[in-house]
Design brief:
Largest sheet: 6 strands, mixed
Mean pLDDT: 80
Strand content: 25-35%
Helix content: 10-25%
Structural class: alpha/beta
Number of strands: 6
Order of helices and strands: EHEEHEEE
Number of helices: 2
Length: about 120
């Protein structure tokens, strides 16, 4: 899965997270989850095996993803359906929706096929 690394200096990263209109968390979607877990453990000491999916490092089975393995950025929104409609109106594509006990999530791509997910803020 493509990944980008940076060393923070004056910009430490997201100042707002976990609220509607902001980054919520990221999930690793990998063809071989065990191999991915091993790689991230050895490279960054990141333990993906015990993640509850609420923080960086969660692993999920593929949704209808345009690429095989990727880090999926998840944005928190007030209204998943309205956000999907806006994505489509602006040239994006709706790839699937999941109603889970803790949240509603939609998998989408923008007008250039960059994948991301939208998750309800009431989760």
């Amino acid at each position: 899965a493509p990944i980008s690394l940076w060393q923070p200096m004056s910009h430490l990263g997201a100042e707002i997270a976990g609220v509607a209109g902001a980054w919520g968390h990221s999930h690793l979607l990998a063809d071989d989850q065990e191999l991915a877990r091993s790689f991230y453990q050895k490279t960054f000491s990141l333990d993906l095996a015990d993640s509850d999916g609420a923080t960086l490092g969660g692993s999920l089975e593929h949704w209808n993803a345009p690429r095989r393995s990727l880090w999926l950025v998840i944005f928190i929104v007030d209204d998943v359906d309205a956000s999907v409609e806006a994505t489509i109106r602006l040239g994006g594509t709706h790839r699937g929706k999941v109603d889970m006990p803790v949240a509603t999530a939609a998998f989408v791509t923008d007008d250039q096929e960059a994948a991301f997910a939208l998750v309800s803020s009431d989760s």
